[in-house]
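Blackboard transcription, Thursday session:
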Amino acid sequence: MTSIVNLLPHLLNGIALGLLFSLIALGFMLILGLMEQINLAHGSLFALGAYFAYALCAARLPLPPDWLAVWAAVPLIWRFAAAVVLAPILVAPFGLILERLMRRTYGRDPLYGLLLTFGVAMVIEELIRVVWGTPDYMLPVPQEISGGFIMLDLIWSTYRFWAAGMAIVAMAVVWVIVERTRFGAMVKAGAHDSEIVQALGIDLTKLRVWVFVLGTMMAAFAGVIMAPLWGIRPHMGVDAVVPAFLIIVLGGVGSFWGAAIGGLLVGMVVGLSSAYASEWSMLSMYLLLLLVVTFRARGLFGKKSVLEV
Amino acid sequence: MKNSKISSGLSRRLIMKGGLLSATAAFFGPWKHNHVWAQGAKPIKLGLTCDASGQYGNSGQDDLRGIRMAIDEFNAKGGVLGRKVEWVTADTETNPATGTRVAERFVSQDQCGFLIGALHSGVANAITQVANKYGVIYFNTNSSAPSEAGENCSRVKFVWDGNGTNFSKAAVQNAVQKIGKNWLLLTNDYVWGHTTSAATKGQVEQAGGKIVDNLLVPQNTRDFTSYLLKVQQAKPDVVAMAIGGDDMKVLRQQIVSLKMDEKVAWINNQQDWPDIWGQADTLFGVFGTSWYHKLQLPGVAEFVKRWQTAYPQSPIPVPGNVSYNGYMSTRELLRAIERAGSTNNRAVIKALEGHKMPAADRMQHYDAYIDAATHQVQQTIYLARRNAKPADPTDLFDVISWTKPETALDTDAPNKCKMKAPADIPTFDA
Amino acid sequence: MALFEAKDLHLRFGDRVVLESVSLAFEAGQLSGIMGPNGAGKTTCFNVLTGRYKPHRGQVLWQGEDITGRSPQAIARLGIARSFQLMNLFDEFTVFENIAIALPQTRARARNMVAQAYADPALVDEAQAILARVGLAERADDEAKSLPYGARRALEIGVALACKPKLLFLDEPTAGLGSDGRARLADLILKLKGSVTIVIIEHDMEFLFSLADQISVIHWGQVIAKGTPAALKANPWVEASNLGRLN
Amino acid sequence: MAPARTIPTITWAMIVVWLIFASVPLWIEKVGLYHYLGVEILIFAMYALAYNLVLGHAGLPSFGHGAFFGVGAYAFGLAQFNIAANLWVCLAAAVGAAAVAGALVALFISHRRGIYYALMTIAFGQIFWFIAIKAHGLTGGEDGLLKIERLPATLGVTVFDLKSNVALYYFVLVVFVAVSFLLWRIVHSPFGRVVKAIKQNETRARFVGYDVWRFKAAILVISACLSGLAGGLFSMAQASAFPDVMSLHYSGYVVMMTLVGGGLVSFWGPVIGAVAFFLARDIIGAVTTGWMLWFGLSFVVLVLFKPEGIAGIYQSLAQRRAKAAAPVVAPNSQAR
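(Written on the board underneath:)
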């Protein structure tokens, strides 16, 4: 029995990780669901979110010194709160530009969208290096949500649970938008049949812009939330985008619950396998993926998609 | 995240200009040189294989600062054998494959006679292979895997840092007796981590301790939660860490934020200065180093001042062990060339092997020497902990002991190290 | 024994019944027609007969042998070819290569990785002959995607013919063609008739009635009537469902 | 009787490419480059050609091809240490191991196409990469498999020593010539044409009687074999095998090389792309630190405006010129 008690912390840790994975995957899923485009630059937008948050929290802004001093004097908790809200907004224009570029690939082989975003990811990563250099940064976390607490006779990171909570909130917001608003209805209709959307007189171009902006902001938000856990470095985007696409394939393209449950599943598998063989734990998510798609070609909750053709 | 070794991925290259000639000039035609130095004497060209990105990007640049300082000092007093010393560097990206290419390029395109620099043992190995092929002398400045002077040693390679075995020898026995017998190892998953942890394990068991677990941590891990959970569950007395570079920064930060720094005794094999700079709050436990900028020895303060004058804009305000190793090794190379009176590789190797370096000259407590059997520099090993009463913002360490090179000597290394006879290496004259 | 027979086919998509006890028989050498309104299940029926979908119940028999559920390629190799309603060509290939790739000679050599694909003059002749039959001999070297609509239709049939079929399924060959095109297509099919067994799905009653030996009417996934064109014209069912009206 | 439709066995383009490569060691140092770079370019040109069999020819977007290249590299080294230190044995091991890896992947993904194919190949690529990093005993982990020898090439009684970069270059060139010739034949063989047909229209290919799954699996295995061969040569060039060639980035690079060069429209496109990639890395890399930024930007522009790549630009220029000369141009679907 002791072994099960020993596993429990790893399971809990896995669930928290899983919620964060879901958060990263969600924005990716929105764009994939409506536009049928794999946005490989998702990770770079995620990284940009983290860097902007760093600039805000650590008061490293291109501002006149006295303004900067005023900003630096603001308590960290307010700076952090500002970063959570502002970073996604600051990253949104990058999403807009990316969407403009993507327009040229609509209606062509989805491969071109994939390649375009691969190139854009590379460019953004290099831009980050130019602006911020190569060193790693840590995002300062306000006292109120950092540190640890004791549970099950172990110390737990407060921030980790706070971050998992934020992931739940963000996912709930997306769920409400997708399932309970007219915008969401249009998005869902578009995901299944863009002809219907046009027949209903909805401006598909505008819809795509909004979905892209929403997806971008989700990516940036995830970047802010993950930054204190993963650290900030130019390459962090790839660390995020690979699990994200994996979760989407696992959960099924175009499914909200697929992304949510896929993320949780991956988190738990990674968490539990790390109890036995921590150095192999990241491999477990790929094996999980293979297992699932071998038996369920479209993932857990996926529907037929034009991507298959 | 663990799967992020792709990191070095979007590979970039940093090629910097050295001396009168720039690397770029070489692209626009055959070798051209302005004969401004010693009546047409060919310059001595050094290839500096320093990381500018990747896990050791920061340390690599600090290494480079030390190396350049030594070169500048020699050029200022008229070069070596009347020849100017020139250098070229490119980013090895903390990536062995890139290291191979850069080394190939330095030797065959830039015609470098000597290669200097490395933090990562994998990169150091890759460069050594190229150096072996051409017979070019290679100075491993800062990679401290015991295997560098053991199974991966080479006649053309010289290892300048104290290694994992040296540090364990200095630290472990004491800790087993004073702190506890149950040890857990946190090991970075590559040669340096493995060999360092193996050395620690040997020392612990010799001292009557026990290894309860050895957790392998992939490079570029950013989320250590699952490892820390396992540490908590295993409840060891001492955790010995062999985690390098930026990984160590993140790990320390996570340990401190969880207040785990007080729950167990942490021993960090070696604490490189660039890894701790700017993170003083997260310094804890006991760690090793080969040099510290506030050692109470003659010449240290003056050296620090020279360094600061050379690099007023440096992101790290004082030289640490990494920059120190870069400086010392380059200086000894240039001196060896002078002693040999030639840049012929066999002659220079001969001038280096067994060479003794007085303590005062190296600004350490004891005399150091280049071990002829392993090509490792045997030197004073310091143990330190966080300084509770810093004299100034850079005074982070409280040096608690210094161990003689003979005491910290890795006695197994000569058996593992199989070198080619000097006559069997290709001759090479820079 | 009929050349090709379908017995009691059932097919569902989810909870929607698409085919319900469909039984059909095609005699060797005859030209049979299948008609019915849009969405009646005609193309789905073809898809079951040619192996694209597997029926939930029922049998497909080829010369008395049960071939139910075999893959499209296995069925194609038996000598059963089909054309598609939405044109399905190898767009980047030349007209010639569209035919050549479908020839059984090419198929027989498809494992060969070193020889040249179309070096055999006999193969080229054969492809040219088929192109001549469908009236495309002059355009052999044009890219398939550059052809005008009618010519693409003809090529579509040409590709099916290149398979050397014993049985040829044509799915709405007249779709999108003008009266001129239809006349030419009718000519072509008449020429083929007799040498190969043909089954045509068709919307255009006049076209079908003028060609077919026998017609089945499918509606709501069921065969509601069967018979010669003459008999069907008189069928009240057909009359009632407004299908027999000539336009 | 109509004339047979044949393609030339040897083309001018082929001869020009081979001759240019053959002359490289004569001048590469004079333009300020170095022999080792030539070896790397040639190996990656071969790799990109092999990769294009899958991407350009079969239309299967593999994003995990680095796995096969890497498996070949490791197999070469492991065969040298554990089986026999013979060049031919080691190269055969590289090809064989890559074939096994290719077959394994093919088993899982040959029923897929498009983006799903890409996603699955990314996943497989990551698995192989991960194993390469973690299986220390076998691969040396992140430090790589070291001390791989440049074995001499024995041909009967003659022995060629490949230790120098120039000798190795010429050896790789011989392999490159053989591989490119073989690929040219494959592309124009009945097998190759069927694969091309499947790329355009999988459904139709099935209905004219082709077992699409087998062809897709076969083309992946062939491509994997030749990628593995290139990987084996690369481990010889580097005297070691490292896991990073198996990473997502390196797999992405070969896609970039192939596309930038124009692999979608031209047989030789991938070769052009590999040359462009390596020269850009070395030349732009010497001038500015962020060479990837500029390369990435030009890649983005190319995908947006000219996905047919450098070869595509050349072809449309040539076509424009031809149009000016003669108004009718016969379209030609043969690989050029």
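Lecturer's comment: The interface with chain A takes residues 1-4, 6-7, 9-10, 12, 52-54, 57-58, 189, 215-218, 222-223, 225-227, 229-230, 232-233, 246, 249-250, 253-254, 257-260, 263 of chain B (CB under 8 Å).
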